[in-house]
């Protein structure tokens, strides 16, 4: 019974990841879904890598039917933060709830005393929608210095 | 019999991709293997995405036991070139032969009259080995202009 619920959630999570992948692709991103997505591995990788004109977004997706806060456990968070740091990209938490999709900068999430990361209801509401995310990425396009020399 | 051979080649190709993934990870890259790798899809994605400090490498892997030239078919090549273009990264062909691994800039491959891409024996020998690839990537690290302002 518990296992069935876990599998159901995993399948639904996968569907949401695919949907977000398609949304980003339609906005001109080169996108790739992690094969490790949804599974536990010693080498953690974010669910989605989305790239556009040299800007790298790493996106961890959390899909929720209800509930106000979204938690990312310490171990998982530290793994994907390390991945993001090596890549030189920026890590986002995508929160998918009914009729709502928000992208939150991971660096702005609150940490609990236990070291877990939490997106509060307020933080989720203040997150970027897809349009705002695209504008944010476009604002980061900047030519390297040597292209001016 | 033919199908067995195809499956054998695919499995060996997957092993080589994993090995290259590990080599790059050990050199400080954030790496991800395409889930589409080895399968035909309408939305082509290179086998490996490797990122380091904002530099994006897209890598298509061709593993060969023997044979001098390596071909990439026009349709596949155009798909992954488009992906690379959108991402702002640079596309490489990794040629794995016994006791040899070379990374070739896709932009320097020769095109046949039919539009396919070919890595000649000379081009493969002149390709970058892993150390040279890492040095090449490190030479591309450059701060965006606004970090100087």
Automatic annotation (TrEMBL), chains A, B:
Gene3D superfamilies: 3.40.1350.10. Pfam families: Hjc. GO terms for biological process: DNA recombination; DNA repair. The keyword Nuclease applies. Transmembrane segments: none annotated. The keyword Metal-binding applies. Mg(2+) binds at residues 17, 47, 60. The record marks 62 as: Transition state stabilizer. The active site is at 37. HAMAP family: HJ_Resolv_Hjc (MF_01490). Homodimer. This is Crossover junction endodeoxyribonuclease Hjc.
């Amino acid at each position: 019974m518990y296992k069935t619920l876990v599998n159901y959630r995993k399948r639904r999570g996968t569907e949401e990841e695919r949907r977000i992948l398609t949304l980003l692709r339609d906005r001109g991103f080169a996108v790739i879904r992690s094969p490790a997505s949804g599974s536990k591995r010693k080498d953690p990788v974010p669910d989605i890598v989305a790239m556009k004109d040299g800007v790298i977004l790493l996106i961890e997706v959390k899909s929720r039917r209800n509930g106000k806060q979204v938690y990312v456990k310490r171990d998982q968070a530290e793994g994907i933060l390390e991945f993001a740091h090596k890549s030189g990209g920026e890590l986002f938490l995508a929160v998918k709830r009914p009729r709502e999709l928000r992208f939150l900068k991971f660096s702005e999430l609150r940490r609990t005393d236990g070291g877990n990361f939490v997106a509060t209801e307020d933080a989720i509401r203040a997150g970027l929608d897809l349009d705002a995310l695209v504008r944010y990425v476009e604002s980061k396009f900047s030519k390297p210095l040597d292209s001016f020399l």
